[in-house]
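Researcher: Batch entry, complex prediction.
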Amino acid sequence: MISTTLLTIAILASIGGSDMVTADELAHHRGHLIHLQGRTGDRIGNQLQIAGHEEMVAVPEGVKIPRRGSKDRPYLLDIWLLQQQQGLTITRATPVSSWQQCLEYHQSRIATATASDQESILRFLMREAPLNGRTQLWLSLEQVAGDPARWIRLGGQFLSGTDVLSETIHRLSLQSVALQQQLYQQEGLWLSKLDFYRLNQLTEVDGHTVVTTRHSLEQTTAGKLDQILMLSKKQTLAKDIRPGARRRTVLALHGNPVDVTWIQLEGHFIEQWTYTDYVMRIIDGRVFEVVITDHQQ
Amino acid sequence: MSSLRGHLEHFGLQELLQTLSHGARTGTLQIERNDEKVSIVFETGHITLVRSGSSSQIRFRSILLRGGIVSETDLLQARKDQEETGMLLGRALIERGIIDDVQLSQALRLKVEEELFDLFLWENGTFEFFPELIQSTAEDEIHQVTRIQVDPMSVIIEGLRQADEWKVIRDRIKDLHWILVPVDGTPPPAESHSLYMLVDGHRSTDEVLALASTTRFDTCSVLYRFIEEGKLREATHGEMLKEARARVHDRPASSLCLYESLIDRAGTSMGHTLLEEAAECAAHHDPSAQADFIRQAVEILRNNGDGPGAWIRLQRLLVLAPGSLEDLLESWSLREYIPTRRVLTLLDELTRALRRAGEYRQLSSILRDAEPLRGTDPSYWLQLGEALQRCKDPEAETYLARAIQISDKKNPEVALRAERLLRDMKSDLSLGDEDVEVLRQRRANMDSHRKLRRGIVFGAAGLLFVLSLLQVSSEWRAKGLLSAARSIEASGFGISSMKSAAIAFERVAREHPWTFAGSDGARSSDRLRVAIQQQQQSEQLAQSADLQMQRTKRIEKLMQVRSSIREAQEFRKNGDVIAARKILDAIDPEALDVLPEIEFKSIKVPVVIESRPSGARVLNSMRKFIGITPAIVDLPLGDEMKFFVERPGCRTKTIQLSGSSPATVEVALVRGPLRTYTLPGPVQQAALAGDTLVLAGRDGQVRIVDVNQLSSIGEHVIGIEGHPTPILIEKNGIVLAVPYSGRPVLIREGGKVRPFGPAARAPWSAACSLDRGWVLADVDGRVIHLDSRGKTRWEYNCNAPVALLGSSAEGDLFVIDRARFQYRIGTDGKQVGSAVRLPGEALQILPDGRALLHDGRMWKPGSMSLGPVPSTTPRHQGPRCLYGTESGWAVFAGSTTQEHPSPSAAACAPLESSSGDGSTWVAGIDGILRLHDSNGVITSEVELGAIAIDLQLSEQGRILVTLSDGRLCDVEELQR
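Model: Structure tokens for the complex:
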């Protein structure tokens, strides 16, 4: 009954018409009735994720969400939302008829939008653009974006590591702007901070940059010390490496590792030896875990 | 059906209007005069509409403009609306908001009144009244826009008054086309000043009336008053003529009006000149008017007895209005002034015009007059007879019979036509059937002869045409070939191209002999053949002269070469090798070609073989001893000979020499190391502390070697096997070894080892020495400064794993973390300034804060310089930074990086020689250690036998090379 009422109100409101926004602007939007364009993400029960918006929105019974398109890239939808005390509720969703129209409409809004909304619209357009047209779109947004810093930041977010980004920064001599916008140059390419960290085995934890392997070793071993010690004390005579094998055996069979890291936990010395195909985890000189690396992943 | 009709002469307009008004009549009163027609609509005795033809609209617009109600632009726009929508002009003006209904009504009323007042000036005309109302049309602005009613009585009173005054005015201003001129010296009038200003001596009265803002009657009244008061006068004849002439090109219509006024006023007294001027003017505007003016001029000339002049004008007239009977008759009357041939043409034209007009009587009269001209022509008699026959004149038979008689055998056609007319007239003079048949036969014969002649003429013309076509075609093709031949002649140079051109010209002459181009081709071919012959002769002469000159030169050269060789042999005999070689080198190699082979082979060229180091034995290919370097060998010019250069401690080198080799050949002999020592374990890092070499590998141990004895002093486990190689830092004869995990150790000269500093809490990632103490850093970003005893002086925490440490010239510390931030830490452990982002991955920090980046750039905040890409770890020695590259090695000094080429890419960081002359040792990946001088020239080579990992310079001036195969080589730096 309640949902029917809600639906009625929402449909009436949607017929009345309101300004259409992007999913990324939703966080700044204050209205009770919202018409936006966005792409749906994961659905958990009656809660649905909208790409570009952190909080989930409710889907009442009877409201159908078009789910066609590919699994990774569902349809771009026109979504009508109703702001309620418990959060946002979807009242209606229909596929967007044309990406080109959507692009033109939101581009035309940029000039009159606030600075934060401009950021949101640009991010939305780049994210939702067809992959093969993203580069062209970014190049065309140079004038629309106004500030070169904002434009380069947008390029860093969506075109990190691409030749076009690196070529554009070089051609327009925007190296200092790119550095200011947290972009990193590596082997001739410009990378976003995320990609740079990933490539250099770094992770940001509580605002502090740490080595990824060391951090994951800490995560893996935390709270499992007894179990690990038990595994490491196994007696093994096998020719391949198994829990209980000694460090010297590992060296004899596989040679020096490509990468080594270690931590100390409650007086125990825990190491991770990384080979091309294996990861050996060693406690106090004895292997407690062997992980086979799947390169295809 | 009309109920009232009559003439205005009998029943005046005022009486008509009074009658219809008093009778409260409804209907339409039509008044006509010549081509003018005015319709007045009455409704119950009141006038509601007056339609007066095309001038009605003009009058309406004039009233609107005169009253200042609308502007020209408004009218133009309203007119456009009217054309596009079909609405009335008045409605369009109202729709546009330019006027309102009241203004429109007033304007229309004024228009009706003016049109009625004008009627009172009519002195003759007919009228008709009928009870039907005429339908208003789009031209009538009244009924569909607004209704007006005009009282006829008020119109009558005003109309009569204006009619009376108008007569007086027109007595004074007779011609409205005449120009009025202000009288000089009279003051302008106080009233109607604007109207007075319109009279400028150039405008006619009509033009002034059109521009004036008052009605025509009122305007004329005022002008009349001005004339009476002597303020205005009529323009003189000359002024009028001047104005008329001035307007001819720009305003021909108005000019013509002026001319007409002038001609009207001049009457018969005017000369033909004015008329001809008017005719010229009319030529721009109205050709029919032009013809009229010329006719008047002709009439005047005739009256004045100027027949030739009249005929000249008449000719123009005949062109302007061809076929005009009136003009032709006029011309015929002037035939005595016309040349006979033209008279005959005129007679033909006149005959045709009179026939068209059916004026046969007049035609017969004219033909009779023309008898002296055409009396011998049977056609003339036929025409005359025919004309008379049409007039039913019995004389026709006589003339037709004469036509038959004259025509006889020459013109059977005329005779037959005349005979047919006679038969039609049933005349007795008509011919018998036999005669007619004879005439017909004769006509048929003449026709067939005519046709035959025509056929022959056409055939001949066709044949000529075909021949012409063939000739033109042939000429065209020949011209093409000739043009090609000319282009061959123009484009080429020399005899061969001239020959080609001559052949081409000959071809034109051969293939198209009967064309102009063919004859041109033949002439050109002859010309070219002569030219070719002449050139061939001159070339032959030149060749023989050339040969003679070459022979002379060769003999001279031979004498010179023999003399030089003898001189060189004298010097060589006297032991002066250099002078001998100089003379031989000075001989031009081409000059040697003149020598007979036996002499050439006997020439021996001395070459000095030097070696580095010197004192090497030189052996020939048969291993026969030649001498000790520097040694002299005499070599033939052409053949190469093999020599061996040998020296103990160096590899034997084979060289190929000939007489064309340089005067001095230097052979660099590759040395071997002085001593070699096989290390007891794997090595990746090395550091030298005095005479003690510290080596580290990935087995977790450091090995200490005495470089004098080349023997191991000891081995110490400091890390874990399999972990990355410990970091080795040297300072003042002490080496700090920092393992990946565990506690660092300090190794002093002589091999004393002691633990130093704290144990690792996270993997150590960087270390360096400072003026006072050491600095260690780990992957948690912790930076620890240790004093000389290993106590922690201060700690600093970076936000990311530390990647690189370096000390500044001032004793501060530079830290670069893996997030590419550079920090400067003061001696008190506090950060100096803010962290700076590096644009790339750093390999080395120099004491001035510069960082060598992975891609070869040397970076410092605010400045950047490009350099070659490093392929080895860098080494900084004082202010200089050296590193290996793919094509040699590079050194950064001052603010620039200079790259030096080397035969092989560097395997490890280059090392500056202890000589201080800028020489640098570079170990190549080809296993050879080379010493480059400051100019990059290789001055010494040492064969190592494996790729070098590290170079160290010992205090004894020896190079210690750690090799990848686990050997340590001791190389003498200074050459003995």
